[in-house]
Specification:
The chain has 37 helices and 40 strands. The chain has 1090 residues and is of the alpha/beta class. Among the domains are: 216-366, Valyl/Leucyl/Isoleucyl-tRNA synthetase, editing domain (Isoleucyl-tRNA Synthetase, domain 2, Alpha-Beta Complex), CATH 3.90.740.10; 666-837, Isoleucyl-tRNA Synthetase, Domain 1, CATH 1.10.730.10; 838-905; 908-973, Signal recognition particle alu RNA binding heterodimer, srp9/1 (2-Layer Sandwich), CATH 3.30.720; 995-1089, 60s Ribosomal Protein L30, Chain: A, CATH 3.30.1330. A hairpin with a 3-residue loop joins strand 35 (980-981) and strand 36 (985-990).
Length: 1090
């Protein structure tokens, strides 16, 4: 397998890797292209275990955004990792090419608007434009995918408008039809007048569909047809959709609720009226001046007639009832769905609500449509003219009702209202004929399949998606549009017989042939007719096309043209999916359509394993701007992915997106965070390699050198590094196997930044500097080399470019890191006790540094001792070991332990505070007494609780068991001097300095200044020098005399002299090291002088 060309093992890493990552990454891309790395890596896994990945198809008639980078990074990282674990992963690309989003773009491009203008333009030419439009940004999608290293097979993608794909969708629909799960129904559905089609329930669940709007909130007087007395008498009904009032056909009341007939004042002239309202709402709606006349159950009001607010006349829309009762119009009906929580408890009924339509069907009540399928009034209604948009009619209608004395109360209310997810037009609910799949018939199976899926995070599968399935309704799969998979259902004009066509071959047989150049899209498909087998009548295709979500949900089968040709074995292998990954919005989209189709097919098909459709589902949240605001063109806060990549490289963008937080949470995308990734993590990893490679080249290090000591014979710090490297592998593998990409990122960051660079390399620099290449130096090289290999391997799935560059340099081979195997963990190299000991060392060092910082004492100034107190004997024993002591002393620059003892409470006291929230319900009246016992617990028991153990206490004669969640450990300090504690250890420093310590501190300051001068002079790291020093001040003079050997060794000085004059050709550099202490230094390369 091929990767970037190399300049040999341990070659210098190009500066562009960290300074100009876009340039460096493009060079890697070019190498991948030239050598066919994607193909060669895939070919090497031909015999591997199959890992099934399904690509959720994007639509290429819009530009990809930064949020697409997020989803594609997750998918690529998972597939890349599984490939590096030896799996065979097909990465078939796909394109979603049907549907209204495509039609809307074409309408804009053509300057036309809506169904009539499309039909005038011509359905054939319009669909051809749609076919062309879907590829408008195809190249940009492919280029961005390649640029972010999202490896997909774009040479053989599935395309949902392809004839083979459409034929497979037909086959799937025919299977549903054969199972008796497809039916025609007239239902009230969410409807877009602009697009002229209904929407399915999962489309309504898309994010952003519901928007807060302000609408009228009004109460109307519906006059009784026969008033009891002389005063006007009305039923009060509430609505927020005045435009539906002309189509009112009934008023609904709850049969068991109490309704009050009350007399209330009208205006201020002493007149009164009688109204009916549910009892619970009397005070809220009518106020205090109410005279209750009588009270009845809702059931007693059934059949009461009232006067319609508007008269529309015929034609009537008849509900699908066995009998129609024209006399039932404009009467009170009973409905269990009526509530008394708001409004008046009397609900206005019109054919624009699902519950309303159910009532009309149950009672056989004819209805009249004021607003038609284009969202406009189809006839004049009072002052509202024909053609008025329903949203523009509210105020006109209310003014007319006010004039006629029928408006009882009016205000404006803000509420959540649905809008079309494609064109942002306000929706309305409209009775329309449609084709449905009876998903409710196998709802429980879908729920079971979903329970077997591992959702990341679980709460989406259990909550948002699980709840959605529990409330599942039948799927409206038809759209009265143009550009889509034609529904393969032909209906007899004479006897209404249905025929589902499952293949082009079947259609050709039924029709006795197909026209030349046949295309299974509209309008040609609509010309195909055949004879009804039952009555000989003409079978014509239903006019509708398929919901484009059905297209994408059929991709596991249609992408291989299943079940035709040689497709069955491929589908058998590639079902179910091992993983899918998309945004949270797909819980109402692709995730659902995949499950709804797959759960039906898999139960009764030998090609498909039943039980689950996708085994794992990773969900990513919204990508927001740096301030947490949703990105939009209007706000001008959209981040162009190309600009971010050009500035920081794709790797840094990928890593920042995954490392900054769990992918399913809303993500603030901030370029400052991307820069921090480059600086802190990528820069540290690259510089760690540079440090290793520079010295490895100098010494000619060979990882296969037989002189390298075995791991067991290396120093503790080498064995610790190798143990941590294997622990990193174990942690990264565990995280990636669990699809915890953030956990994997953070594990690598901690290892590279904190352990590899800031600890191991910094602690062991001298081992690489020293001249002889003996066993200790070889052990250091080998250990660092192995740790770098491990770090690069686990970095590769998420930062593929940087890993490729580092791997090429580490190995000196042309092979790609992405073709390597992330092997199983070598458990023999993991030493938990050694890791625990080093963790203690690091903690003591951190506290020591904090103490130095507060005291204003630099680390270069040696101190006499550090004192440590602890109430854990095992921890003290670890610290007393020679390895731990050496690490603490060297890192903190102290001469030894002042004291290393059990804490006797002299400096601080470790106490426990009761967690009242956790304990309150459990302990009840014992809580106060238990709290006193908890606060008096000895330190040993507090430590036990803090570390996850349990402790028994006696409270008023009862034995209670406390766990770690029942208390909060706290530390009370009472030392007479500065101490540092983490709740386990108490540390303090001996800050008294004598002449000897001061002299050594000044010597180390001199070393620092000279090594800085070496770098400024451009000397190679291994180059030896002649060094001349001169000091002014009693302390520095003493330091130069007492520590000349140390200074010479640490600065690689082959010769060190002191004199008042600088070396020839090397002027003095001068520094002030303290009050009255000055240092001069002059240096030249040793070879240059000799």
């Amino acid at each position: 397998m091929s990767g970037p060309r190399t300049a040999g093992r341990f070659a210098p890493l190009d500066e562009s890797v960290t300074r100009a990552p876009d340039k460096a990454e493009r060079a890697v891309l070019e190498g991948w292209r030239e050598r066919g790395v994607f193909r060669s890596v895939a070919a090497a896994r031909e015999e591997g275990e199959v890992f099934v990945f399904w690509e959720g198809p994007p639509t290429a008639n819009g530009r990809p955004g930064i949020h697409h980078v997020m989803a594609r990074t997750i998918k690529d990282a998972v597939c890349r990792y599984q490939t590096m674990r030896g799996k065979r992963v097909l990465r078939k690309a796909g394109w979603d090419t049907h549907g209204l989003p495509v039609e809307l773009e074409v309408e804009k491009a053509l300057g036309i608007n809506g169904r009539p203008e499309i039909e005038a333009y011509g359905i054939g030419p319009f669909n051809q434009k749609c076919r062309e439009s879907v590829w408008t940004y195809r190249r940009e999608w492919e280029q961005l995918s390649e640029r972010i290293a999202y490896w997909l097979d774009y040479d053989d993608p599935y395309v949902t408008y392809d004839a083979d794909y459409v034929e497979s969708v037909w086959y799937v629909l025919a299977r549903f039809h054969a199972a008796g799960l497809v039916y025609r129904g007239q239902r009230v559905v969410p409807y877009c007048g602009r697009c002229g089609t209904g929407l399915s329930s999962h489309e309504i669940g898309q994010p952003g569909v519901y928007q807060d709007v302000e609408d009228p909130s009004v109460i109307l007087r519906f006059r009784l047809a026969e008033a009891v007395g002389d005063e006007p008498e009305s039923l009060l009904a509430w609505t927020t959709t005045p435009w539906t009032l002309p189509s009112n056909f009934a008023l609904a009341v709850h049969p068991d609720s109490d309704y009050v007939r009350a007399r209330v004042p009208v205006g201020e002239d002493g007149r009164h009226e009688v109204v009916w309202i549910v009892a619970e709402r009397v005070a809220a709606v009518l106020g205090d001046e109410v005279e209750e006349l009588e009270r009845r159950k809702g059931s007693d009001l059934a059949g009461v007639a009232y006067e319609p607010l508007f008269e529309l006349g015929e034609p009537f829309l008849l509900p699908p009832s066995e009998s129609i009762d024209h006399g039932a119009r404009h009467r009170v009906v009973l409905a269990e769905t009526v509530t008394a929580e708001d409004g008046t408890g009397i609900v206005h009924q019109a054919p624009y609500g699902a519950d309303d339509w159910t009532l009309a069907t149950r009672h056989g009540i004819p209805t009249v449509l004021g607003v038609g399928p284009h969202g406009r009034f189809v006839r004049p209604v009072g002052p509202v003219e024909e053609g008025t948009h329903f949203k523009e009619a509210d105020e006109t209608l209310l003014a007319d009702l006010q004039r006629r004395g029928l408006l009882f109360a009016s205000e404006r209310a803000t509420h959540s209202y649905p809008h079309c997810w494609r064109c942002d037009t306000p929706l309305y609910y409209f009775p329309t004929p449609a084709w449905y799949i009876r998903t409710t018939a196998y709802k429980q199976r879908m729920i079971e399949y979903n329970r077997r899926c591992n959702w990341v995070p679980p709460q989406v599968g259990e909550g948002r998606f699980g709840d959605w399935l529990e409330n599942n309704i039948d799927w409206n799969i038809s759209r009265d549009r143009f550009w889509g998979t034609p529904l393969p259902f032909w209906v007899c004009e004479a006897c209404d017989l249905e025929c589902a066509v499952g293949s082009v071959e079947d259609l050709e047989r039924l029709a006795g042939g197909l026209p030349r150049g046949f295309d299974n899209h509209k309008p040609l498909i609509d010309e195909v007719t055949f004879s009804c087998e039952a009555c000989g009548g003409t079978m014509r295709r239903t006019n509708a096309v398929v919901d484009c979500w059905f297209d994408s949900g059929a991709m596991p089968y249609a992408q291989y043209h299943w079940p035709f040709g040689e497709s069955r074995s491929v589908v058998r292998e590639q079902f179910p999916a091992s993983v899918i990954a998309e945004g949270l919005d797909q819980t109402r989209g692709w995730f659902y359509s995949l499950l709804a189709i797959g759960a039906f097919l898999a139960e009764d098909d030998e090609d498909l394993a039943p039980g689950v459709v996708y085994r794992n589902c990773i969900v990513n949240g919204l990508v927001l701007d740096k301030d947490g605001v949703k990105m939009s063109k209007r706000l001008g806060n959209i981040v162009d992915p190309w600009e971010a990549i050009a500035e920081h490289g794709a790797d840094a963008v990928r890593w920042a997106m995954l490392a900054s937080g769990a992918p399913w949470l809303p993500r603030r995308f901030d370029l400052a965070g991307v820069l921090e990734v480059r600086r802190r993590f990528f820069g540290t990893l690259a510089n760690s390699y540079r440090f290793f490679a520079e010295y490895a080249r100098i010494d000619g290090f060979d990882p296969d050198d037989p002189r390298i000591p075995p791991v067991a014979e290396r120093s503790e710090i080498d064995r610790w590094l190798l143990s941590r490297a294997q622990s990193l592998l174990a942690q990264a593998i565990g995280c990636m196997d669990a699809y915890d990409l953030t956990g994997a990122c953070r594990a690598v960051e901690v290892f590279v930044v904190d352990e590899l660079s800031n600890w191991y390399i910094r602690r062991n620099r001298r081992r690489f500097w020293k001249g002889e290449t003996g066993p200790d130096k070889l052990a250091a090289y080998a250990s660092l080399h192995e740790a770098l290999r491990a770090a690069v391997l686990v970095t590769a799935p998420i930062a593929p470019f940087l890993a490729e560059q580092l791997w090429a340099s580490l190995t000196g081979r042309d092979g790609s890191v992405h073709g390597e195997l992330i092997e199983s963990v070598d458990q023999t190299e993991i030493d938990p006790e050694l890791e625990a000991g080093m963790a203690l060392v690091v903690r003591i060092v951190e506290m020591g540094r904090a103490l130095r910082e507060r005291a204003g004492v630099r680390t270069r100034q040696p101190l006499r001792a550090i004192h440590v107190r602890c109430c854990e004997p095992e921890a003290l024993e670890l610290l007393r070991g020679g390895f731990a002591s050496t690490q603490v002393f060297d890192e903190l620059n102290v001469k030894g332990w002042g004291s290393l003892d059990m804490d006797d409470g002299e400096l601080c006291t470790l106490r426990a505070k009761p967690d009242f929230r956790a304990l309150g319900k459990r302990l009840g009246p014992l809580m106060k007494a238990a709290g006193a016992v908890i606060e008096a617990l000895p330190a040993e028991q507090v430590v036990c609780l803090r570390d996850g153990g349990e402790v028994e206490i006696e409270v008023e004669g009862q034995t209670l068991t406390l766990g770690p969640g029942d208390v909060r450990p706290t530390v009370e300090l009472h030392a007479p001097f500065d101490v540092e504690t983490d709740g386990r250890f108490v540390c303090y420093l001996d800050l008294d300095l004598d002449e000897e310590l001061v002299a050594e501190g000044l010597a180390r300051e001199a070393i620092s200044r000279v090594n800085g001068l070496r770098r400024e002079s451009g000397l190679a790291v291994e180059e030896r020098i002649h060094l001349r020093l001169w000091g002014e001040g009693e302390g520095i003079v003493r330091a130069l005399g007492a520590h000349a050997e140390l200074i010479g060794a640490e600065t690689l000085a082959a010769e060190l002299s002191t004199a008042e004059e600088p070396l020839d050709g090397a002027p003095w550099s001068e520094w002030t090291l303290g009050e009255g202490e000055r240092l001069r230094a002059s240096l030249v390369a040793f070879e240059a002088r000799s």
